[in-house]
Amino acid sequence: MGLLARIFGAVPRDEMSGIRLDMGRPFWEVSGKTDFSSLLVALPELLPGECVLYFEGGWSSGELLDFLQEHRIPERAHVAYGTIWPKPTVFHLPATPKTMGHLAKLMLSCAYPELAIHFHVYRDERVLLEWHDAFTQPMLLSGELPEQAVRKFAEGLHMSYERGVEPGAAPDPGRGATGVRLRR
């Protein structure tokens, strides 16, 4: 750990790397307004089994913090931090319907930053959902999730979805003549 990281509580460089959504492969971009409670209720229909919820950088307290601490599991894969300073608190929880349902109820009386600033879901060594600056940036989903499931998920949250485009990528035939992505 570097001296400045220790002094200022920053994330050491070696901990900044980790798994992240593979932007070199197809992905989905989901946009619009939602909340953690609605999202957590919708996720079980989207996700395959054996996934892990990853919450980073929240300011949890009380019953929410108790729940996160009681249900946390050991890190199964190191997710690349989205926060440089201060070193964030992270929680890995099993993505089971029971866990997500209870957490959804708790979030009805909490503001989203209490749970996380960055929210991801991973399975094995692959990120399936990556949401940096949750609720202010688009949510990115792995292209391995079928479009029909992504459509149902987005519609259930009253959000829109589209095929994601990596910055600097070659023109996409799904774009109109003006270069604007065509909504599905």
Brief descriptors of the model:
globular; 184 residues; alpha+beta; seven-stranded antiparallel β-sheet; 7 helices
Could you characterize the architecture of this molecule?
A hairpin with a 2-residue loop joins β4 (116-123) and β5. The chain has a 7-stranded antiparallel sheet. With 184 residues, it is of the alpha+beta class. It has a domain at 3-22 and 36-140. α3 (36-46) packs antiparallel against α5 (97-107). Helix content is 30%, strand content 21%. The protein contains 7 helices and 7 strands. The protein has helices at 3-8, 13-16, 36-46, 62-71, 97-107, 112-115, 147-156; strands spanning 27-31, 52-57, 90-94, 116-123, 126-131, 139-142, 160-163. The chain is globular and about 45 Å long.
Summarize this entry quickly.
With 184 residues, the chain is α+β, with helices and mostly antiparallel strands.
* Lateral strand order in the biggest sheet: 3-2-4-5-6-1-7
Quickly give the structural class.
alpha+beta
Helix content: 25-40%
Low-confidence stretches: 175-184
Provide the β-strand percentage band: 15-25%
Largest sheet: 7 strands, antiparallel
What integer value in Å does the Rg equal? Answer: 17 Å
The number of strands is 7
